[in-house]
Amino acid sequence: MVRFKVWASVLLLAASAASPAAADNGFTTYGDVARYALPAGAVLLSLSKDDTEGLKQLLASGAVTLSTTYALKYAVDDTRPNGGRRSFPSGHTAAAFTGAAFIYHRYGWEWGLPAELAATAVAVSRVDGNYHRWRDVVASAVIAHTSAFFLVDRLDERVALMPMIGARDGAFGLVGAVRF
Q1: What is residue 177's predicted lDDT score, i.e. its pLDDT?
Q2: 94-110 burial by CB neighbour count: b if 16+ within 10 A, else e?
Q3: Which partner for 78 in 88, 106, 116, 140 could form a disulfide, CB atoms 3.0-4.6 Å apart?
Q4: For 87-129, how does the pLDDT look when each residue is reduced to its tens digit (9 = 90+)?
Q5: 26 — pLDDT class (breaks 50, 70, 90)
């Protein structure tokens, strides 16, 4: 437990130092910091559970997510709403959802739901700050979750929730399973 507290303190200090001095507003600053804090939180959670296999899966999923994101950024080279370059997909959102998708897929919805909400706030901060369009941030979340779906194994398979999308009628929702 002491090791966890030490790592948490170090990462919180690093995350606060990483925030840009000339941020547009507090919400944009949140997105700038949380893009690092969510993957760092995933690392801390894995360390606190002595889950070395999970750490390996986080690294693999993160590598695939970020390399796909940046390959698409340079291949598509879409203009940002604020006039900048390389809007599609969002790197901030991809980094945040790398941590959130890993936590969700590895440790379940109880840990994953708060992480997903925090990552969603990063995505909203990018759109709100006029850095990205909705399609940019949604694509990043899909890339991160697809990577985690294929590369991350659930640690506890008693409860599982999965998104469901109907191909013919456009329906969507959640499908769940409980094992006793």
Answers
A1: 58
A2: bbbbbbbbbbbbbbbbe
A3: 88
A4: 889 999 999 999 999 999 999 888 999 999 999 999 999 988 8
A5: confident
